[in-house]
Design goal:
alpha/beta; 11 helices; about 25% helix; 6-stranded parallel β-sheet; about 350 residues; 7-stranded mixed β-sheet; Rossmann fold
Length: about 350
């Protein structure tokens, strides 16, 4: 099969690899769609906020939807031809530590020690996933939208932690897919949503897909006056955190979703004077006993949000280098979500 691998900054190559064999509790999935995440772009640029040093060669792609083509002996009720979305394998927890027992597997304390973190490899024709990370979905939901369940689950987790609700004035900083998803979901709660960014074209798109009620450029942060601010950019510096502190009202809350390349700095005097609450949002796990990935997938299937409107560019796997270049250079491409779309190889079915 063909699979993409990162060999260094902006050096992504397509190579041959054997089709993986599913273990007893795994399914083999023929990939139909795989989105390029902001974390993929960090590594593409040579940065790794989670591991520190970039390790290459590295295979990736964790926003995945596809069709089950083979199953292990203990693979539950999954059948060949089943349409599925994959919860990223890097979210696997040990199941034994206190956070895992509470359902917070995204906070597993054994990662980096005895737990060997697995990763998904969705930029390929096939990938394997454990049944615990495989979620059946309706074929009425296009595969490329089902692959966005990871994005919406991250947004849902951030909203759960922030307590956003009716009457709140919300500001989302960032015009990427995560910022769009946060804005769409916050509006469903009855909040009024502002979106802040640097590209007017992206802000116009945010309005068109229902991600905000108003939009503004970053220079206007001090006029936002938001009860809740969601930072959905991250990056190499703390500029967006400065904007968040400027924009939040006294006694308000800032929630950080963006991944930063290093330690961040917050303007202490202003933050202290406003008595700001600062919350971190790290991926997702469960909420009130329900898997947030499942909640997000069901939400997408319900049609309550314009998930299709996030996808601006589609590329075949053979053009993945151009796909990453497009996703990185947004000033040229005006990209929001770039997705790798695969037609399937004889299994037929879901959008293939």
């Amino acid at each position: 099969m063909h699979i993409a691998a990162l060999y260094g900054p902006r050096d992504i190559r397509l190579e041959e690899a054997p089709v993986p064999e599913p273990a007893e509790d795994e399914v083999l999935v023929e990939i139909r769609a795989a989105g390029i995440c902001g974390s993929d772009l960090h590594r593409y640029r040579g940065l790794d906020p989670w591991e520190g040093q970039l390790r290459v060669p590295q295979r990736g792609g964790h926003e995945i939807a596809g069709v089950v083509v083979r199953r292990g002996r203990r693979a539950g009720n999954f059948e060949e031809g089943q349409a599925v979305a994959i919860e990223p394998m890097h979210l696997s927890g040990c199941g034994q530590c206190v956070p895992c027992r509470r359902g917070h597997f995204n906070l597993c304390t054994n990662r980096g020690r005895e737990l060997r973190r697995r990763t998904s490899s969705g930029f390929a024709e096939f990938d394997v996933a454990t049944t615990g990370h495989t979620f059946a979905c309706s074929t009425r939901l296009p595969a490329e939208e089902a692959a966005l369940a990871d994005v919406y689950a991250c947004a849902l987790h951030a909203l759960h932690r922030s307590g956003v609700g009716f009457g709140n004035r919300v500001l989302t900083i960032g015009t990427g897919p995560l910022g769009f998803a946060v804005g769409q979901l916050a509006r469903l709660t009855g909040a009024t949503v502002l979106m802040m960014g640097r590209r007017e074209a992206a802000l116009k798109r945010a309005m068109s897909v229902g991600a905000c009620d108003e939009c503004m450029l970053c220079d206007d942060a001090c006029h936002a006056c938001a009860d809740l601010v969601f930072e959905a950019v991250g990056g190499a510096d703390s500029e967006t955190l400065q904007l968040a502190v400027d924009a939040v009202v006294p006694g308000g809350t800032i929630t950080l979703l963006g991944a930063f390349a290093g330690d961040v700095h917050i303007p202490y005097r202003k933050a202290n004077r406003k008595e700001i609450t600062l919350r971190w949002s790290n991926g997702y796990s469960t909420w009130n006993g329900a898997r947030e990935f499942r909640l997000a997938l069901d939400l997408l299937a319900s049609g309550q949000v314009d998930s299709a409107g996030l996808i601006t560019h589609r590329f075949p796997l053979c053009e993945i280098a151009e796909a990453f270049a497009t996703a990185e250079d947004k000033s040229r491409s005006n990209a929001t979500k770039v997705t790798i779309v695969l037609p399937g190889h004889g299994s037929g079915g879901w959008n293939g």
